């Protein structure tokens, strides 16, 4: 998606250790016009499939997952990273997600009432690096008796093993911007 | 806003201690069509004011803040509740927010680059109870040299002191659904 690639080049920031930061349009400040276009792009790619729900993880996934769900005219669910007090009384599906960046394992949960047998779920997330988050969401969906119909990613770090792992798990991954390398403060797309 | 009130009556759940749960369309699962209408409603109410940015708090505020920002064609910023690792190197505006529900004080932060002198900010949040969250956001905006042009709330618990506190601070509060009471499992609007 050219618009996203251009925005990354114009507004992304490269931090020490070649860390790409997109806080000015995806992760902290959000560009709602870009998000609307992203929703349309995912609808165009996945539009031939039956989708009953869009699933993401709080917080950065919420915006693009919502515009995508709007295009499909279906509900969006965001998995929570902790157990807030209001969820404690509910039964939840849960999965452990290991973060290589932070070197910690955290739990993602979805209330059992919100994922159902027969659900055909499109997963949307902002970054794909090692694929652990998406595999965690896949587990939640399958624990509920649903199935993953596709995975929509905004920014794929193609130099990391996430895509391969997801494909090995039978998932169809569509990434709007695939980054081949980040070096010397410069992003190169595939 | 009739659509929101009807949705609360149809899909809201009353838990013990008269706790209203809206996890099936606002707080965990999100109804993107409802959110689009909410954005239009806030645009209609606040549309005569200059708005340069919409500000909310993660995670439940993101969806309605984004549709509102889309209507105004301005960026949306969400304050973060903790300091994620990628923010650590940045300077932030911060405010303490006391939660009466959880009886804890937490910190909300926004990177200094994302709030600026002269910004005219519309605050959007899902619930208004004691007003502490909105007052925290107001502090961030004013620390940056900006001003609050209005406060858009989805669900106001009018039996709690939030609105009064915000009005005492000179804020114009527009709530889409004002709840007068929750008793015996029943919601009554003002």
From TrEMBL, chains A, B:
Localization per Swiss-Prot or TrEMBL: Cytoplasm
Entry binding sites for 5-phospho-alpha-D-ribose 1-diphosphate: 129-133
One annotated GO biological process: xanthine metabolic process
GO-annotated cellular components: cytoplasm
Binding site for xanthine: 20, 27, 157
Pfam families xref list: Pribosyltran (PF00156)
The enzyme's E.C. designation: 2.4.2.22
Catalytic reactions of this protein: XMP + diphosphate = xanthine + 5-phospho-alpha-D-ribose 1-diphosphate
InterPro entries linked to this entry: PRTase-like, PRTase_dom, Pur/Pyrimidine_PRTase, Xanthine_PRibTrfase
Pathway this chain belongs to: Purine metabolism; XMP biosynthesis via salvage pathway; XMP from xanthine: step 1/1
Key words, A-Z: Cytoplasm, Glycosyltransferase, Purine salvage, Transferase
Main localization of the protein described in the UniProt heading: cytoplasm
Keyword Cytoplasm: yes
GO molecular function, one term: xanthine phosphoribosyltransferase activity
The Phosphoribosyltransferase domain, residue ranges: 35-158
Cell membrane as UniProt keyword: no
Oligomeric and partner information: Homodimer.
Role played: Converts the preformed base xanthine, a product of nucleic acid breakdown, to xanthosine 5'-monophosphate (XMP), so it can be reused for RNA or DNA synthesis.
Family stated for the protein in its record: Belongs to the purine/pyrimidine phosphoribosyltransferase family. Xpt subfamily.
Name listed for the protein in its UniProt record: Xanthine phosphoribosyltransferase
Protein source organism: Granulicatella balaenopterae
